Amino acid sequence: MFLDKLRAYGKTFASARHNKVPDLIRLLLKRPAILTGMGAYETALLVSGKVDSHLKMLASIKTGSLVGCPF
Prior knowledge:
By secondary structure, this protein is mainly α. It is about 80% helix and about 0% strand.
């Protein structure tokens, strides 16, 4: 039940932003175990507090500039 709601939300969110569901989202929606593991990992990174939030923001900006992201 929860995974079905999560799957529907993921499809809606991805479709609204990209006009189609990206391959990564499609893969994660087909493999809920990978989605759960990846979500837990990302959440742990965000709340760990080991790295200063200012440094995280600088890393995000640098990464965006390296891959040609406009923002």
